[in-house]
Amino acid sequence: MSIETAPRRKAVVLLSGGMDSAVVVAIARAQGFDVYALSVRYGQRHTSELDAARRVAGQLGVATHKVVDVDLRAIGGSALTDSGIDVPVDGEGSAAIPVTYVPARNTIMLALALGWAEVLGAADLFCGVNAVDYSGYPDCRPEFVAAFERLANLATRAGVEGAGLRVHAPLQHLSKADIVREGLRLGVDFALTVSCYQADVEGRACRACDACRLRAQGFDAAGAPDPTRYA
Questions:
Q1: Is 167 helix (H, G, I), strand (E, B) or coil?
Q2: Architecture of the domain spanning 9-222
Q3: How far apart are CA 104 and CA 231, in angstroms?
Q4: 119 DSSP assignment
Q5: What are the helix (H) ranges across 35-141?
Q6: pTM, entire model
Q7: pLDDT, tens only, 88-134
Q8: Positive or negative, the Cα torsion across 130, 133, 134, 138?
Q9: Distance from C-alpha of 20 to C-alpha of 127, rounded to nearest angstrom
Q10: Which residues contact 29 (CB under 8 A, 6 or more apart)?
């Protein structure tokens, strides 16, 4: 007599191609989820991160990797989507909310992930937001994650008729060094990832932007070799 095994749960995981989202994919897999990875081409200047997302999805064995187009250049207002705004380097222009903040980006991406989760019958969403070593973005705070989870359960058929939707942010309270250590423990190949806000078409980093600085500090604090390729 054959023994039937319970189907693995599905989770939609936002995968940018950076180090944080790669670790989140690995965490979701380790927790027993079949990962449906979602990347968003939103008009970002560092499009090489999407190539990185494809590589990471392949390395970590996701069930499906989907790329959705939402052109936020039409809105602008960020150094990542507006060519008329320079990416701050070497700590210049640091403010409570820097110009690399993309208006409503995490809200939009989670909304897309939520829609796909409903189609898939998935009750779990994962994102890589972090409230420790980050750049001051308001949509990286625990309050935002909790509020979006409430919204998800109010605004969807899956939330009203199902067992409830959950938004997981497993890196929320980890330092960059902790994220590096967790990724290495789970077998993430960080050489495949791209974090730089203005990486070139080959994914080589600038070394000077905030994302590069935080990434380098994380590897240094973790005592791990930094595989970042620099231009």
A1: strand
A2: 3-Layer(aba) Sandwich (3.40)
A3: 30
A4: H
A5: 48-60, 105-120
A6: 0.93
A7: 987 654 557 889 999 999 999 999 999 999 999 999 999 999 988 66
A8: positive
A9: 9
A10: 35, 60, 61, 62, 186
pLDDT band at 163 (very low <50, low <70, confident <90, very high): confident
CA distance 171 to 175: 8
Q: Which amino acid is at 230?
A: Y
- Distance, CA of 96 to CA of 17 (rounded, Å): 25
Q: 180-215, pLDDT tens digit by residue?
A: 999 999 999 999 999 999 999 999 999 999 999 999
Other residues' Cβ atoms within 10 Å of the Cβ of residue 211 = 24
Task: Using alpha carbons only, give the angle 18, 21, 25 rounded to the nearest 5 degrees.
Answer: 135
Residue 80 near residue 102, CB atoms below 8 Å: yes
pLDDT of amino acid 93:
47
Residue 92 is predicted with a pLDDT of: 53
8 A C-beta contact, residue 23 and residue 186: yes
Q: Which amino acid type is present at position 3?
A: I
Which pLDDT value is given to residue 191?
Answer: 98
Q: Locate the domains of the chain by residue range.
A: 9-222
Q: What's the rounded Cα separation, in Å, for the pair 17 and 142? A: 22
Going by C-beta distance under 8 Å and a sequence separation of 6 or more, which residues neighbour residue 155?
none
> Alpha-carbon distance 107 to 100, whole Å?
16
